[in-house]
Structures are given as structure tokens and as C-alpha cells.
Specification:
Length: 335
Amino acid sequence: MLMPYPWQAQAWRRLQAWRRGGTLPHGLLLHGPPGGGKVDLARAFAQGLLCSAAGGEGEACGKCRSCGWVEAGTHPDLCLVTFEVDEKTGRVAKEIKIAQIRELIEFTRLKSHGVLLRIAIVHPAEYMNRNAANSLLKTLEEPPAGVHLILVAHQAARLPVTVRSRCQNLYLPARASDAAVDWLRRQPACRGIDPAPLLRECGPLEALRLLESGEWGARATVLQQAAELLRGRADPIEIASQWLRLNAVSLLTCLESLLTDVGRLKAAGREGMPVHGDLLPGLLELAKALDFSRLFSTQALIRESRQLLERGANLRQQDVLEEIALHLALNPTGT
Ligand SMILES: [Zn+2]
């Protein structure tokens, strides 16, 4: 049975109040920072709506045929639209296309199979291209009876105003709430780790991913390696090959986040409130070793490389990481 996460209790109550009052909007926009489990919330809510034996709080029974279909992703009255994956190359599309929204509109026109509801979830909705978003407008304005569209977005501001204004907005903060801290603390990957700084950086699910993948644990090593490169005490090619053991995008994201902290410390001293406060001595050392112009050029190079990799540019991860290690090792500071 799909359930809302503990930090979504307030949003869940809001959704259920709409359902009970018969005022559930036909266009709903769930938005908030990534890693907060917004799509999971939308699916749990949809499962409850479609369930033939839902509880008083709108929770699904988890046992009926409808619940089984939702969990298997095969419910004929639930349609999830997201990035397409190319079957041959495995590449994930970078936007949601008009053909997908046309299919969604066709879906809303079909007759429902079960409880006279049809629900479509679009995620992440801000990645609909302009034509796709425009083609959705009419359905948002005059949805067929029993149709509910749930748009899920990390950055609602990137959606056209015309789309946003036709939806009831529900914001999911998802960051360091007590419920999120408690939940993360109970995860095996969090044993012996203080989850609070991690939750200042990202939503709880992204935090769990960072812990489970070892990326959070690798920060101290990455920071130390960057410092050694700057001092001219490490071989950039050797460091790059060690970095290659982590996924390159993860490594670059980690370096970016550490260097953002270095910038905060340079600009405001300890008042800069670094996210990685547990690594303060290493961050201060880096802040001393990097002048602003070197810091900015390094950050720009890392950001550019990460964006290229995320866009699926044809680059060897090793080349990208070597370029960054060499950039750090250039003109050692000798401190
Ligand atoms: Zn059920």
C-alpha cells in the first residue's frame, strides 16, 4: 500500500479535506524542492481515490484489485506522464513532449473502469515543452467529468502562468522538518550520522540516496583531495581515477556543494553557516587557499561539466574529472 511520508502529514490532511468536502480540484499542482517524495504522495493519493475499500482518512486498502493495479503501475484509470526513455540507447528524454500530452488527453476522454474517476499525474510538469503545456490548457480549463490532473513540479515558477493559474497549488516544503529528521534517523544507512545538515541541503529522499550511495560519506575524502591538489601535493591523474569510482555527476555535485560552502565562508567567515559544518577545518583551509577568482573559475568549470554530463553529452567521465583535477592542481598555492 502506498503511504504518504511522515513529513507530508499536513499536505495529506489538506488533500483529504478536499476529497471529503467534494471540492477536490480538477487541476492540482504539487510543488516543492526535489527529494521530498511529491510523486509518491500523488500516487498514494490516487491509490486511495481509486481504491474500492478506502479507509476514512482516504488511505487505500492495499488489497483490492484496484490497489494492486496502482502498485504495479497498470491501473487503467491512472496515467503517469514523465520523461520517456529511449528503448535502444537507454537515454532519458530532457522534456515532456506534446505527443505524450495528446495521449494524456485521449486518456481523459475514455470511460473509467472503476469508481468513475480518471487521474493523470504529470511529473516533472515544468519540463513540458511549450507546445505540450499549451495543449494541456483546454483540459485543465474544462476537464471531462471525474478527471483529475495532478501536476508535480520542483520549480512551479518555470510553468507557464496560464497552467499555474488553472491549478490549485499545494506547496510541499519537505526540508528539515522534525518528521523528516526522525524518518531519516531511522534508516539503516543513517546509523551514526547526524541527518540535520544533510536535510539543509536536500529533501529526505535525496538525502537517503546520498547516504546509501556513499556520496555523503565521500565528502571528507573529496575535500581532502581537493586541498592536496591545490597544494600541489597530489597527482591530478591519480586523484581523477579515484574520483571515477563515484559516479562523475555525483562527484561534481559534491564538489560544487563543498565549494559553495567555501564561498560562504570566504564571504561571511564562520557566519556563512556552511551546510557541511562537520567539515569546517577542511573548508576553512580551502577558503584560505583559493582566492575568489580561482574559486569562481573552478565553480564555473565544474558546473559546466556537470551540466554537459547531465545533458548526455558524449564525454568520457575520466576526461572530465581529469580536467577538473588538473585545474585545481594548476599553480599550486604552497600553503
Ligand atoms: Zn484498495
